[in-house]
Amino acid sequence: MEVHFILFIFKVVIWLNQNFLLPEETNIQNAPFQVCFTSLRNGGQLCIKIKPSGEITVNTDDIDLAGDIIQSMASFFAIEDLQVEADFPVYFEELRKVLVKVDEYHSVHQKLSADMADNSNLIRSLLVRAEDARLMRDM
């Protein structure tokens, strides 16, 4: 099992060297280890941590960057089925706020639709009364 893990670490190092601008060849012999980068997309932090169990953790606040990293790793390691856990509290809070606004807009839309139906019925009854008044010449 130790040989498989060493090969895994070796492949991770190859992937790191192929996908990131490193000042020198990264030569890592054992786990756990962690590499951190500054994202050029938004200036945020990106950390990739490898545990002795083979679990890889990607820490970043950028959901798109995390998706790209996971997709690149899965492609490089030829992984077709991958169990992933993600937690992006900033994005989830933003999504929650948007959903609250959508719910508010939906409530306003329903109220306006009901008011419009009420006004339409009022206009219809007033038109009937106006036509009756016209026929009776009651101006």
TrEMBL record:
Name of this chain's protein: Bardet-Biedl syndrome 2 protein homolog
Keyword check for Signal: yes
Cleavable signal peptide: 1-15
GO biological process, one term: non-motile cilium assembly
One Pfam family hit: BBS2_hp
Domain BBS2 platform: from-to ranges: 11-77
UniProtKB keywords: Signal
Transmembrane segments: none
Domain BBS2 hairpin: 89-139
Source taxon at top rank: Eukaryota
Species annotation: Hipposideros armiger
GO cellular component: BBSome; ciliary basal body; membrane; motile cilium; neuron projection
